[in-house]
Amino acid sequence: WLLPSFAIITEAKEAEVKVVPQFHFAPGTIVVDYRGYNYYALFGRWTALGVYLATRMNENAFYEIVREKKSFPKTPVSSNMN
Fold this sequence. Notes:
Layout: E1 30-33, H1 40-48, E2 52-55
Parallel strand pairs: 1-2
């Protein structure tokens, strides 16, 4: 478990927004999106279904903190996210 079930690699000029909405994920799935486009309606649907998302956020993104949780200790992955 915790292994990717599939990956899609496209040319850099092709935006994920064209293919990602057709995907259906089971609750508990973690979606990792490198390019970090902002498709908040889709992100909201995934969140409501219990799907987790890891992506970059734009510097000018508007957001509200609704709950804070204790973070994990710094690891090679989390320490590179500063």
